[in-house]
Specification:
With 358 residues, the chain is an alpha/beta fold. 44% of the residues lie in helices and 19% in strands. Strand 13, helix 12 and strand 14 form a beta-alpha-beta unit. The chain is elongated and about 70 Å long. InterPro entries: YkvP/CgeB_Glyco_trans-like.
Length: 358
């Protein structure tokens, strides 16, 4: 079976939901050949920049299945229909709840202006199959029953890097967060005063570091001094490597809202894979993963942070145990058969649909 994956350019989605799954499936010997491209070759009725132009033909490049990653435009829906008319099965791959984007998110205005939530939902309704990162996303986008959850997973080469807990015990323990206040405008505030309380209560020296964009984190968290800011890395592999080199404790706070309750377990999974001790919110997927220490209230954050800073033996023991779970259950080689089975199911659905329509 030949699968063509038309990918997004968003680095995280591209890495975890396209590049690495394709690599894992191709290496697994599952009789599935996966190729990637940014977009598909199409012919338009007019200039592509003209919103009145329609897609009148699309080249599937010999694929039996085409995966449209985050299709969120009218042309994407037209491409889906044209491919299906050729007998090509179409999978829609989704990893975020676009109807639940927070007002303060940097992309909120663009998403609203281009009616992204409408178009991605329309594509999902007509797809032969929807793949998603979480059950909540599947409930939103695959109410027709043609859907599969394929959880996020970590490449073995990343999980086998030297883990954070193997470093000598530091004089100053680093509590870290990965992200940007531009795309996570309210999540750090879910801790309220818990972060600073934990740092203050710990007997040992500690510091707070953000890998990404700190922006106004100091003001939002009422910190006495700004966090250390380490800029984003050029590649996801470099970013994941840096997580284990910089952090001893990783925090994953999320405000409980529709968007975050549909969000995948990725951040605690990354921390666990790199041997970092995770502390995380109690969102559905974080709970499903089950790794890391659950924090519901500011005092939970304070307690877990202070204990993680002061008790290095416990921190390393739990981090090592979490990493073993990742190695045993959450690598891309574990999800490769799930991806392949989903794509086969999409093809079966297309064949069945054509027989019914014949």
């Amino acid at each position: 079976m030949k699968v063509k994956l038309s990918s997004t350019r968003f680095a995280g989605s591209l890495y975890y939901r396209a590049t690495e799954p394709a690599r894992a499936v191709n290496e697994a010997g599952l009789e599935v050949q996966v190729t990637l491209s940014y977009g598909l070759a199409t012919r338009m009725s007019g200039p592509a920049e003209d919103e009145s132009s329609d897609v009148i033909s699309v080249d599937a490049d010999g694929a039996d299945v085409v995966v449209l990653q985050l299709p969120k435009t009218k042309p994407a829906l037209q491409i889906l229909r044209l491919l299906q008319a050729q007998g090509v099965a179409v999978v829609v791959e989704i990893d975020d709840l676009f109807s639940g984007i927070a007002y303060g998110h940097m992309g909120f205005a663009t998403i609203q202006h281009h009616n992204v939530a409408h178009w991605i939902a329309a594509c999902a309704r007509e797809a032969d199959l929807v793949t998603a990162t979480t059950p909540a996303l599947l409930e939103e986008y695959a109410r027709h029953g043609r859907g599969v959850v394929v959880p996020n997973a970590i490449p073995r080469r990343i999980a086998e890097l030297a883990p954070a807990y193997d470093r000598p015990e530091p004089e100053t323990v680093t509590v870290g967060w990965t992200g940007s206040l531009a795309s996570h405008p309210y999540d750090l505030q879910a801790m309220e005063s818990g972060l600073q309380q934990g740092l203050d209560r710990a007997r040992r020296a500690s510091r707070f570091t953000i890998l990404g964009q700190a922006m106004d984190a100091q003001q939002r968290l009422h910190l006495p001094e700004p966090p250390i800011e380490v800029p984003w890395k050029d590649t996801v592999d470099e970013y994941l490597s840096a997580v284990g080199e910089l952090f001893d404790v990783g925090i994953a706070p999320l405000r409980l809202d529709r968007f975050n309750e549909a969000k995948s377990w990725l951040k605690p999974l990354e921390y666990a894979a790199r041997g970092v001790f995770p502390i995380r919110s109690n969102t559905p997927d974080y709970e499903r993963l089950g790794l890391g220490m659950r924090a519901k209230r500011p005092r939970d954050w304070a307690d877990h942070i202070a204990k993680a800073i002061d008790d290095g033996d416990r921190r390393r023991e739990i981090a090592a145990r979490n990493r073993e779970v990742v190695l045993a259950q959450h690598l891309t080689e574990h999800t490769a058969p799930v991806w392949a089975d989903a794509w086969r199911r999409a093809l079966d659905n297309r064949v069945r649909s054509q027989r019914i329509g014949a």
